[in-house]
Amino acid sequence: xxxxxxxxxxxxxxxxxxxxxxxxxxxxxxxxxxxxxxxxxxxxxxxxxxxxxxxxxxxxxxxxxxxxxxxxxxxxxxxxxxxxxxxxxxxxxxxxxxxxxxxxxxxxxxxxxxxxxxxxxxxxxxxxxxxxxxxxxxxxxxxxxxxxxxxxxxxxxxxxxxxxxxxxxxxxxxxxxxxxxxxxxxxxxxxxxxxxxxxxxxxxxxxxxxxxxxxxxxxxxxxxxxxxxxxxxxxxxxxxxxxxxxxxxxxxxxxxxxx
Length: 259
Hints:
Elements: E1 5-11, E2 14-22, E3 62-66, E4 69-73, H1 75-81, H2 83-87, E5 88-96, E6 105-113, H3 118-131, E7 133-141, E8 144-153, E9 156-162, H4 183-196, H5 208-221, H6 241-258
Parallel strand pairs: 1-5
Antiparallel strand pairs: 1-2, 2-6, 3-4, 5-7, 6-9, 7-8, 8-9
Helix pairs in contact: 4-6
């Protein structure tokens, strides 16, 4: 793996030199965009909107529009904005894991200690593991400030970039139904949830869509037709809710007995 960010984690007066690696990878197939008429690849160009000519990467700069002109920003300007945050993941507080809503999480990064940071790295890792807490930290990467949580995953420190509060839309704009549900229905649903509750095994969950798509691609390449199963999802009518809950519960119980 190649590190994407080098710097320091700090908490209190303790500093830990680290390297940051992407903790996830895309699993989607590499598909090209083509012209449907001749299957030629579609190319995207960086074009000057005044001259219409293509611009090379080395000639592209970033600018902030002000009135009718641009303020051009150099690489040093992004670092100067907050030199410390460009080099340091600064843990500002610790919170309970249970306090964090899943909707905040965006992307995980693994952290590895650099030379002379091994002991302090293990210190932070073991302390977080024993307390069940997460460190709340901020840092700057790729000219953007990130809010993050630092925890432990399989003996490694992992940093989760999370969303700022103003990046989460207000769900009050949704048209949510105002329909009463009976206690009996809720109790039945809770029983069903209990029946389906089991230990979470990360490795049991696979990305099957890509594999299925690859099978279709291979079949098409050999001139074969693939059989498509018809599927139609229908909402459960409110009048059938209890019956369907009961049927689901009975089905799960029978499956457990059989196993």
